[in-house]
Amino acid sequence: MEIFSTIVFITALIIGFFVIFTTYDQYILVIWSFICAVWIFPLWVRVCFKKNCCYQKIFSDEDYGRLLTDGYIEYKPAKRNTSEKLLKILLVLNILVTVTGVISFALLSEIFTSIVCAVSVIGSLFYLMVIIENGEKEQDNRKWVNYLLIVVYILFFFLALGSVVNATISAIEFDSYPPHGDIYDVTRNNQTHKMHINCIGTGSPTILLFHGLGGQALDWSWIQPSLSNLTKTCSFDRSGYGWSEPGTLPRDSRQISLDTRELFKAANIVDHDVILVGHSMAGFNMRVYHGYFPEKTLGMVCLDCVDPQNIPEGVDQYEVPLLYSMGRYLNALGIQRLVFALTKTFTLDISLLPTHVHTEYLMNVLKYKYIPTWIYEWSDFPMSGEETVSTGNLGDMPFLVFAAGKGLNNTGLTRLSEDSRLITLDDCDHMIPFREKYANIVVEKVKELVEEVRELN
């Protein structure tokens, strides 16, 4: 029975973690964590080590009866009976809570699911206390095994607790910080997910702001308000970032551009004359988007965009930084949130943006979908580069190339258009939209471009 239950337990673990490693849905991890912590693992422990006893038997049954009759010893019911009853009650309750959690995950709101998970984790804590009590009373030579199992159980418990707390905080934050602008359903390949876009201002042409790898619509917090005084300006979150849900794989520029096209259709801006403005890797996405739908693009602006024919050394399809690979799972378990809470530091330059967006920006980065999306886009980087090169040149389209002196070597992008203009920012690093001083320079140059295309059209 022990061997059979162990095989079942290990098989369940392998299947569960395979599901987790092949998806980037935070709540699948939450549900799996508390199922392991409050049901599968404790059940296995009870099956394998159910022979716990509360006393060591040193008398025969006959001697024990005589001593009891003569009054030499006093009969005291074993506490083990109470513990066993409590174990059975807790096991039933945890099964019920687990089923309720799965149903609520499918049918109800995320915050309710998180609360159900939390209740189940609390129940598992009582379960743990009973196991510890029995472990202390274990008299056979497997006592050390019980303590080892308790340590493993505690690990499972805190994994479940961390994922539940992180999911609960994320749900609360989402309600506390609703998206700026609008959320639309985007359907491609018979799959629908929600995407976020924020359009402010009026006028033509419409300026479309494409954020870079690992960014979000809030990257444009310095630039968008100023440009919206002149014309309609739209920032948006690519699938998997900010307030947008993950899209279909792969996450190459072709897939991203088609998602973006559907979003613009839903927002009723797909037929507008537009100027495309992008940062970093968005240079790929803008050019591929223009390659598919060139008829309405009147100009393009690249802020230290990656040149696919001059990719920085070390960029490889299979080289995902270890920190990000681990972060995919640490993020879902709430460890990244805990580290930030203790150190108040983060890898992104969030502090460079306006103060009022710091909390929202961090909230979006701490979502479980963020790092997996980053990984998928980075892994498809070479594919996106090839797709970008295949789009060819831009003809005589006005094309502004901002080159950061401490950023990428992208001056070669001027070859793409007969009307290219190079603007060099000698003292700036790669994060042009994040730095107010240089963001203001971008605003002035884009305003000049808007006035120019208005005269020509």
Q: Mean pLDDT, rounded to whole units?
A: 76
How would the global form be characterised? elongated
Tell me the Rg in angstroms.
Answer: 29 Å
Sheet/helix structural class = alpha/beta
By DSSP, the count of extended strands is 8
The H/E string reads: HHHHHHEEEHEHEHEHHHHHEEH
**Low-confidence runs of at least 5 consecutive residues:** 49-59
Strand content: 5-15%
- How is the biggest beta sheet arranged? 8 strands, mixed
Which strands sit side by side, in order, in the main sheet?
1-2-4-3-5-6-7-8
Alpha-carbon distance between the two ends? 80 Å
The helix content is 40-55%
Given the structure, what is the number of helices?
15
Q: How would you explain this protein's 3D organization?
A:
- With 457 residues, the chain is an alpha/beta fold.
- It has 15 helices and eight strands.
- It has helices spanning 2-21, 26-48, 61-69, 79-107, 110-137, 143-176, 223-227, 253-266, 282-292, 322-332, 335-343, 358-365, 370-379, 381-389, 436-456, and strands spanning 182-188, 191-200, 206-210, 233-236, 274-279, 297-303, 395-406, 417-429.
- The protein has an eight-stranded mixed beta sheet with strand order 1-2-4-3-5-6-7-8, sandwiched between helices.
- The radius of gyration is 29 Å and the shape is elongated.
- The protein starts with a helix and ends with a helix.
- Residues 49-59 have low confidence and may be disordered.
